[in-house]
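User: Here's a structure from my thesis project, written as structure tokens. My advisor, Dr. K., wants to see whether a designed sequence matches the one we expressed. Can you design one independently, without my sequence as a hint?
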């Protein structure tokens, strides 16, 4: 399900455009997993993140990273996939986790070219939806998104965590 190692990840160039200057050679660890077009993928992404963060021994941001991954994957599944996405299709969403010496980045790639939009529920904490990007903004140190270039279509939404 996942790949660990320091190999460069396919959306890295698009991701790098929106991040503070981080040398590709300084990536100490990277992991990635494909996520199917179904809501069980959120649980899979959270479990993958928990294992990866535990392997990287980064306890200080453990809960924040897991929460943000859940929100980004939920947003990708809910808003970035066409309504007619086949259940058995090749996984259209991909989670990437990257660690530098003092930072962790989680990035979710999806097939939509639409920009992520914060919901109107920031002031209504009883609302069941619409708070995803508000939570991402609250629990990460910074976040953003970029369209993918070249032969890849879609976008990468990322969140950065300082250690």
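Assistant: Designed independently from the structure alone:
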């Amino acid at each position: 399900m996942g790949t660990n190692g320091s190999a460069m990840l396919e959306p890295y160039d698009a991701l790098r455009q929106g991040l503070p200057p981080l040398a590709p050679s300084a990536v100490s660890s990277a992991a990635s997993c494909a996520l199917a077009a179904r809501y069980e993928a959120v649980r899979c992404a959270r479990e993958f993140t928990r294992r990866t963060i535990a392997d990287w021994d980064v306890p200080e941001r453990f809960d924040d990273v897991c929460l943000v991954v859940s929100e980004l994957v939920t947003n990708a599944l809910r808003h970035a996939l066409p309504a007619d996405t086949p259940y058995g299709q090749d996984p259209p969403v991909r989670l990437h986790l990257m660690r530098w010496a003092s930072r962790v980045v989680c990035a979710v790639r999806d097939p939509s070219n639409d920009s992520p939009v914060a919901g109107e529920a920031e002031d209504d904490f009883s609302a069941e939806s619409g708070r995803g990007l508000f939570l991402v903004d609250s629990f990460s140190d910074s976040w953003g998104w970029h369209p993918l270039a070249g032969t890849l279509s879609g976008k990468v939404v990322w969140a950065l965590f300082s250690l």
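When you compare it with your expressed construct, this may help: The longest helix spans residues 62-79.
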